[in-house]
Amino acid sequence: MIGKESVVRFRWRSMARWLSLLAFLVLLPLAFAARPAAAANIIPAGPTRIIDGGGVLCALLPSGAAQCWGQSGTEGVFPGPYVAVAPGEFHACALTSTGAADCWGSNADGGATDQPGPYTQISAGWGHTCALTPAGAVDCWGDNGDGEATDQPGPYTQISLGSAHSCALTPAGAVDCWGYNDNGRADDKPGPYTQVDAGEWQTCGLTPTGAVDCWGDYGSSNPATGQPGPFIQISAGAYQACGLTPAGAADCWGVSFPEAEDRPGPFTQLAAANGVSCGLTPDGALECWGIVKDEPGPYGPWQPPAYPEIVAAGELHTCALQPSGAVDCWGSNDSGQATDQTGPFIEVTTGYRHTCALTTTGAVDCWGRNDYGQATDKPGPYRQISGGSDHTCGLTPPEPSNVGAGTTTAS
Fold first, then answer.
1. Residue 305: predicted pLDDT
2. Which of 221, 237, 343, 381 has the most beta carbons within 10 angstroms of its beta carbon?
3. Could you tell me the sign of the dihedral formed by the alpha carbons of 34, 40, 46, 52, in that order?
4. Bridge-partner residues for 17, per DSSP?
5. What is the per-residue pLDDT for 290?
6. So where are the chain's domains?
7. Please, are residues 258 and 290 in contact by the beta-carbon 8 Å criterion?
């Protein structure tokens, strides 16, 4: 027979267990909510453009690198990592994960000048570049001879640049344009549109029903024309425009050049540039028609380290990654392994008496004991790192495809 005291103890233990379980269930979501994140990223608004065209053609690799073909000084592989790339006529710019603009190529007009941002979108023209701020304003730099690089207060949801004009999409779906307007390419349009794409001498807008309206011309006084569609994405080039059908085919129109031919696909994205049109296949390859050859890829959005270490413990020290990207360490610091670092970093790992962290560019910075080379800095790029007792390893990104004869890899 269970005595009264035993019953009281039993009930109290049962109640304590239930209270402990309840507290665990209540605090668990809070613990995950309070968990620090890796360095804050600025992600481009809308679907990520893997391929884009201007005077040159560029594509993003899963490593975050940008690969470009076309004008000398713009072609090659640029390591990044980038979350968006914007090819112009003689230069190209790319958006980093923190929203900064990195540019390369001809900078005669200042269009290839790096900018700190932060920005959520970027687009490049003949000699100018514009980027969309998180507030929806447009910042421009470079050639402003016709007003094409004039800042705009917005707010806008998308931007697209032609050779000497710029256009932006308002939240209501209207298109505002500014810059050189000899043929109507920079005319404002009430819309509504869901996408705007500016080509060399034309501008096109995608309507909510999937039809395409185009204004301006294809050069040599050939008026730009629209198409009934339906399309789910459009891209305007120099002498052509292309629309992606719901089935993944490329319908192109314009002057009767090879880049204006149709292709069956299937494709997931299209890019029309000066002298070439390309489609991104479901497996990440580029199928091109015009002056650029097919490229096997694969191309796709940047894939940051899949399992970043937010907190890492060594033998006698611990380090943690702050949301700002800095690393805070505590514990034994006899070899300098617990020295705080400003970063910014996206991952941290520890060994016996050393610490390493992965930078936003994929390089590795290390500190602490280095008697076996375990704390040696490495240029990378790497996607992920891990520290052992007296060694460190890094996972490299997939190798990009060969860009062809005569091209170089930027370092």
1. 56
2. 237
3. negative
4. none
5. 86
6. 51-290, 311-395
7. yes
8 Å CB contact between 47 and 30: no
Per-residue DSSP letters for 185-245? TT--B----SEEEE-SSEEEEE-TTS-EEEEEBSSTT-B---B----SEEEE-SSEEEEE-
CB within 8 A of 43, min separation 6: which ones? 83, 120
Mention every residue, 6+ apart, whose C-beta is less than 8 A from residue 99. 42, 117, 118, 119, 120, 134
Q: Which two tokens stand for residue 385?
A: 């790192």
Q: Would you say how long the chain is, in residues?
A: 411
Phi, psi of 232 (to 5 degrees): -115, -10
270-298: average pLDDT: 88
d(CA 83, CA 138): 19
Residue that the structure tokens 């049962």 belong to: 14
Nearest residue to 150 (alpha-carbon basis) of 176, 178, 174: 178
Instruction: Specify the fold of 51-290.
Output: Methylamine Dehydrogenase; Chain H (2.130.10)
Give me the numbers of helices (H) and strands (E) for the chain, helices first please: 1, 30
pLDDT in tens, 336-364: 999 999 989 989 999 999 999 999 888 99
Residue 336 and residue 329 in contact, taking contact as beta carbons nearer than 8 Å = no
